[in-house]
Amino acid sequence: MAALIHISNITRRYGDLCALDDVSFELQPGEVLGFLGPNGAGKSTAMQIICGTLSPTSGQVIINGADLQSDPITAKGHIGYLPETPPLYPDMRVDEYLTFCARLRKIARSQVALSVEKTKQRCGLAQVGSRVIANLSKGYKQRVGIAQAIIHNPRVIVLDEPTSGLDPNQIQEIRDLIKTLSQECGILISTHIMSEVRAICDRVLILHQGRLVYTGPVTTVKDSALLITLGQESKWDYLAQLPGVSHVEPIDQQRFRLTLSGSTSAADIAQAIVAHGDKLYELRPDQGNLEQIFSQLTLGETNP
Amino acid sequence: MIRNLSARELKSLFLSPMAWSLLGVVTIILAWLFLVQIESYLKIQPNLVARASELGVTDLIISPLFDSSAMVLLLITPLLSMRLLSEEFRTGTIQLLLSSPLSTQQIVLGKYLALIGMLFFVLLVTALMPLSLLFGASIDSGRLAASLLGLALLLASYGAIGLYLSSLTEQPAVAAVSTYGVLLFLWIINLANNSGLFDWLSLASHYRPFLNGTVSTGDTSYFLLIIVACLLMTIHQLEQRRGRG
């Protein structure tokens, strides 16, 4: 299958500042791609370029087979974009606004009302249809922003920090929504929340100072490593002797990273520790990989 | 598509108290000027009759009214045009338009037509005053039509200039102030001396012939030139902006 977004050698300069330097990547259908990077790494710039609101200094963007430079109207028809600040007209009502957006995205006249209804259902906006956008809470505004991006069932959805400013319940709703959407299209999402990337993304790109420094699948989580916390007075030297443990790395007095071998599961280890008569306070899979990669790549070197 | 954009723009203009207060103020001021003209006409009417003068209501009431309308509307157009694009830049809603399958021309035309719609509504209100004279006097309808055409072209030019200046800044107030500057300057530029160029550049010297009932190709094309040039520059500016970020 052809890539939904195909970006080759995008460079973008603001005067002397190079915001993006020779960035290339692809987004496949059904994939949720996470865009990570410290603030100012060029995430938003890259997203603006993909959505055609900013032109690259050089390079090519192809959206679902249409070149954004030479055939912008077709290319933009495939995109739904939520910028960092949702592009809302505060004096409009939610229904009016979504109808306006539906028409902007060239939905057939007879389908407009239907799409608005469907999108409101999806984004949990059914109750606020007749409210003026200016009076909505931040969470609802963000949802209206997402609604305008998906109203025309685009193949490519680009969301710039979609969960910022939402409460935990709303974040969960948005994540569920993103998962549902990803079955039909490709989603590019930027964030600096690691747990979010783990929760929803299939693949991750890390940008640092305008350069693409890492791309790889999110699920590099090793099932074979565990983080455990034991009681204070525990002696930990027995851990290495437990069956299936190949390596023990103490983090501090109570916490240890265990590397497991073969088909040993977390349950076996828990049982073994308890059977040994020790107190097990916490046991979880070691997911530290992404954080490690991120901080290594973005803190390790600093340009003058 | 253009209609969708214009409709939204007009709706938001009329939802805000801005449009209504401007319309109210303009109507009151023009009505006052109109009454003053009628009163002074009634005062000198016996004189005119005695001297068998050729001057009638069209010369003494309608032309002065249109002359002052041009000035009063110069004062309100920048307030209507200032937010058109600058507000979109400031709040980021321009991103919605730029990422939608629209051409820049459609965005600019949509905005412009909304403004024209609003200004022509003002024009309609203005036109009702001279038309009300039909109840008691005979007016030169050809000349009235020419005056209306002149005012329409003038307003369309005001609007185009305002739209262009609104595309240059993110501050609506800056857009308004610069529009006032350009419009007033273009209005008074022929006061300097009688040089042909300044006279040609002046809005006033192209508008006044319409009030006398002269519709000339030269004057009409002057206004059309301003409108087209400003719209093209706005489109260019919007595309430049995308490149600049």
TrEMBL record, chain A:
GO terms for molecular function: ATP binding; ATP hydrolysis activity. InterPro entries: AAA+_ATPase (IPR003593), ABC_transporter-like_ATP-bd (IPR003439), P-loop_NTPase (IPR027417). Keywords: ATP-binding, Nucleotide-binding, Transport. The keyword Transcription does not apply. Coiled coil: none annotated. Transmembrane segments: none annotated. Signal peptide: none annotated. It comes from the Bacteria. This is ABC transporter ATP-binding protein.
UniProtKB/TrEMBL annotation, chain B:
One of its GO terms (cellular component) is plasma membrane. The chain crosses the membrane at residues 12-35, 55-80, 112-139, 145-166, 173-192, 220-238. Keywords: Membrane, Transmembrane, Transmembrane helix. The lineage of its organism: Bacteria, Pseudomonadati, Pseudomonadota, Gammaproteobacteria, Chromatiales. This is ABC transporter permease subunit. It holds the Pfam family ABC2_membrane_2. GO terms for molecular function: ABC-type transporter activity.
